[in-house]
Design goal:
Number of domains: 1
CATH class: Mainly Beta
Number of helices: 9
Strand content: over 45%
CATH topology: Maltoporin, Chain A
CATH architecture: Beta Barrel
Distance between the termini: 46 Å
CATH superfamily: TonB-dependent receptor, beta-barrel domain
Number of strands: 35
Structural class: mainly beta
Length: 800
């Protein structure tokens, strides 16, 4: 399907919504209420109480918890990407830990360039650093999938730079997760789904019915005193692995030897959100969430010829499994309320993520037939303390003036723990000559990799929002931050909104932003086998200030800096609303993980690396400059009828273009240096997310019956190879994915739903046979909608 028909169809639908007759509205709804339909109150992007998303000077999406739960999907990141065109959520495979800890992106930028808040408080990142060839390579991002949808009230997505308001990471925008608050009521549900799909890879076809997913969730609201609440939410997920590998041409007869798809997952999550008055106008509040996720993904298969050193253990070869065990904690406690004329919020939060790695069903070739088959590879951990004070007050100056200010202190810690010797090294004696050490599939962390680092940060902000006239809103924000490792930074933002008429407003923002280099980027160290174009390459990754990296010209990492501009319009009339926002984001000093700097590049490099006995090394560098330009369009029309219920029509689109303007070409020592960023890394930044994504949805709800039909168009994405001429690139093609759900969902009582995700069983274009010599990578894992095919599900539940 070509781009023009999709775009034209989308805007024709918008025009149709705008022209819809007022008679479609329920005659009993007052005009004021009609104008308020879909105009939810927001707390993200503004600190002025009572501001709605359509009154905001910056674009904000409000995604209700029910909208996210009315899908067959088990991951919050995937559910978000389905309904929010500016968000993408990849489902990578064969990229080690990223198979299990999968990041989301906003406006095509890196996953760690979006700030995630929980109830307005900074969330903690995952301990995992994405170091292989996935989208977001080199980033350590918040794992949205640690928060089950059953615990949500709503999610607010601020599509605008907001570092001046919220601090580091808010370059692309902010995702604010709002937890459910309930004093009563509750519900339980169970969703069972499976794939029913025809798999057409380059070398053959097969069908699959199975690979089930079971999700059981529930919540309960409990009254705490006369006005307080405790809301408990829990979820259990058991997902069987999927396999979309191609047939392996290396075996006779040809058959599928790999496992390429979603990992096997068993996880449980428990969240508690509570609040209660403790004095006149003062509330004590807090939340805690814990998730335990046990995930098993597959590495590339080892055929008998490659596994000759362990032929007595694995006479038919073996398929290594990477077992990732993630334990994640979120918690916070605070006091908020009115002190005189001021509204005050004092809170303390703590978050921690620990990931243990094991390699199962594997071998260490250097041990020969004495090799273990299961290995403990070590662990990574990240934790974060945040102490914040936020103060605001509304003054009767101009039409209205809201003054907000605050301070924040943060302490971060990062740790790598070594694995058992067999996971990373030769045996103490009797090593098999010529065989590589370490567990096949995922080598462990050695004691040389083990580190424990921390840093501190202090910040202060001032946020002013003034209604200068009844139709003119001006916002000014500034923030200063000081880090113990790299120093200070200051950022500012100005916002402007002009209401030209009751139905028309113009808005715009300009801001500077930053993202501090993460501890993971500064200190992660590992020797790993990375697959490039189907072949493993031994590489070493070192901190930029380590002796190896420093010898090659590595320097202390500096923060990324951005300049953001946006301009847009808001149109609304009755139940119809349309927002169009154009943006430009320039990022300089952007961090990137370098290519392997190999001794074979030059005698100079060989001489530098020789004393360290390292054949190749890579490390993080500053110096990348990018420019992102795009347009977001969101149109919504809600019609309430006398007899047919309520119809909610939405068309939303994101058109996004990322350009790399400059790349680093030298280090402090090497000039010229080997290519520090290959063509494939640049293409991944520019073409790794769709340039066009358009979603059209119809949601119908009657007294108890309801239905949702959604179609999403994805532009082409490039999964680049390493060939300089682009001949090894794998393109996803342009595709439309259709989802359908039918449900019986009264407010209370029994619930039932059936649905299909990817109703018409659409796949990205298959990986060409010439680029898939092992048969493993059947489809490009850069695909923005995955590569699993049609998924059918049923959900039963009970609300009370």
């Amino acid at each position: 399907m070509q781009r023009f028909p999709i775009v034209a169809t989308s805007f024709l639908a918008i025009a149709a919504f705008a022209a819809a007759p007022a008679s479609a509205q329920d005659a009993d709804i007052p005009a004021a209420d009609e104008a308020a339909q879909g105009d939810e109150i927001i707390v993200t992007g503004t600190r002025a109480a009572g501001r709605s998303r359509l009154d905001s000077p910056a674009p904000v999406d409000v995604l209700g918890g029910e909208t996210l739960r009315r899908q067959g999907l088990t991951e919050l990141g995937q559910a978000l990407a389905t309904v929010a065109p500016s968000i993408d959520f990849k489902r990578p495979s064969a990229v080690d830990g990223t198979d299990a800890i999968r990041p989301a992106t906003l406006r095509g930028l890196a996953p760690d360039q979006t700030l995630v808040l929980i109830n307005g408080t900074r969330g903690h990142t995952s301990a995992l650093l994405n170091v292989n060839g996935s989208v977001g390579r080199g980033s350590a991002a918040v794992d949205l999938n640690t928060i089950p949808t059953v615990a949500l009230d709503r999610i607010e997505v601020l599509r605008d730079g907001a570092a001046a308001q919220y601090g580091s990471d808010a370059i692309a925008g902010v995702v604010n997760v709002r937890l459910r608050e309930a004093r009563e009521g509750g519900g339980v549900s169970a969703t069972y789904g499976f794939y029913n799909t025809d798999i057409d890879t380059a070398r053959g076809s097969r069908s699959k019915t199975g690979e089930p997913v079971l999700t059981v969730s529930g919540w309960q609201g409990i009254a705490l005193g006369d006005e307080g609440y405790v809301t408990i939410s829990g979820e259990y997920v058991h997902r069987k692995p999927t396999n979309r590998a191609d047939f392996d041409p290396r075996v006779t007869p040809s058959r599928v030897t790999g496992r390429f798809g979603d990992p096997e997952v068993e996880q449980y999550s428990l969240w508690v959100n509570a609040g209660t008055p403790v004095a006149e106008g003062i509330e004590l509040y807090g939340w805690a969430g814990y998730q335990n996720r046990d995930s098993k993904s597959a590495a590339f298969p080892r055929l008998p010829a490659a596994a000759a050193a362990v032929s007595l253990i694995w006479p038919d070869g073996f398929l290594p499994l990477i077992n990732t065990k993630s334990r994640d904690l979120n918690s916070a406690v605070g006091l908020r309320g009115d002190l005189g004329e001021w509204n005050v919020d004092l809170n303390l939060s703590y978050g921690r993520n620990r990931i243990e790695f094991r390699t199962l069903n594997s071998a260490n070739y250097s041990y020969g037939n004495a090799s273990p088959t299961d290995f403990y590879d070590g662990a990574v951990a990240y934790d974060q303390w945040v102490l914040g004070l936020d103060v605001s007050r509304r003054f009767d100056v101009f039409e209205e003036l809201n003054v907000a200010f605050g301070v924040e202190g943060r302490r971060e810690g990062y740790k790598i723990t070594a694995g058992e010797r067999a996971s990373y090294d030769y045996p103490p004696t009797g090593a098999i000559p010529g065989q590589a050490p370490g567990a096949q599939g995922f080598g462990g962390f050695s004691p040389l990799n083990a580190i424990e680092k921390s840093r501190r940060n202090a910040s202060a902000y001032l946020d002013l929002e003034a209604k200068l006239t009844p139709s003119l809103l001006l916002g000014l924000a500034g923030r200063v931050e000081d880090y113990s490792d790299f120093g200070s930074t200051a950022n500012g933002k100005v916002s402007l909104r002009f209401d030209a008429a009751d139905w028309l407003a113009l808005r715009g923002t300009a801001s500077t932003g930053f993202r501090a280099p993460s501890l993971q980027q500064q200190y992660f160290t590992s020797i790993a086998s990375v697959v490039q174009n189907g072949a493993p390459v031994l590489t070493g990754q070192f901190p930029s200030v380590s002796p190896v990296a420093a010898a090659l010209g590595g320097l202390p990492l500096e923060p990324e800096k951005s300049t953001n501009f946006s301009v847009g319009t808001v149109i609304r009339a009755g139940g119809f609303s349309l927002t169009v926002d154009a943006y430009q984001i320039k990022i300089r000093d952007q961090l990137a993980l370098s290519e392997n700097i190999q001794a074979s590049f030059s005698p100079q490099v060989a001489a530098i690396l020789a004393p360290f006995n390292v054949p190749a090394a890579r490390f993080f560098i500053n110096g990348l400059k990018t420019r992102t330009r795009g347009v977001d369009v969101v149109a919504n029309y809600k019609a309430r009828t006398d007899t047919l219920g309520t119809f909610d029509f939405t068309v939303a689109a994101n058109f996004n273009d990322v350009d790399v303007l400059r790349i680093p070409t030298s280090t402090a020592v090497l000039n010229p240096a080997p290519p520090l960023l290959g063509r494939n890394r640049i293409a991944s930044i520019e073409e790794g997310t769709p340039r066009e994504k358009v979603t059209g949805a119809i949601d119908w709800s009657g007294d108890a019956l309801g239905a949702t039909l959604r179609a999403t168009y994805y532009g082409e994405v490039n999964q680049p190879g390493t060939a300089a001429n682009g001949s090894a690139d794998i393109l996803t093609g342009k595709h439309v994915i259709t989802d359908l759900e039918l449900r019986y969902a009264p407010v209370k009582g029994a619930q039932f739903a059936i649905g299909a995700s990817n109703l018409f069983d659409v796949y990205p274009d298959a990986t060409p046979a010439a680029l898939n010599t092992t048969g493993v990578v059947g489809f490009p894992y850069y695909s923005p909608f995955g590569f699993n095919g049609r998924y059918l599900y049923a959900r039963i539940g009970l609300n009370w």
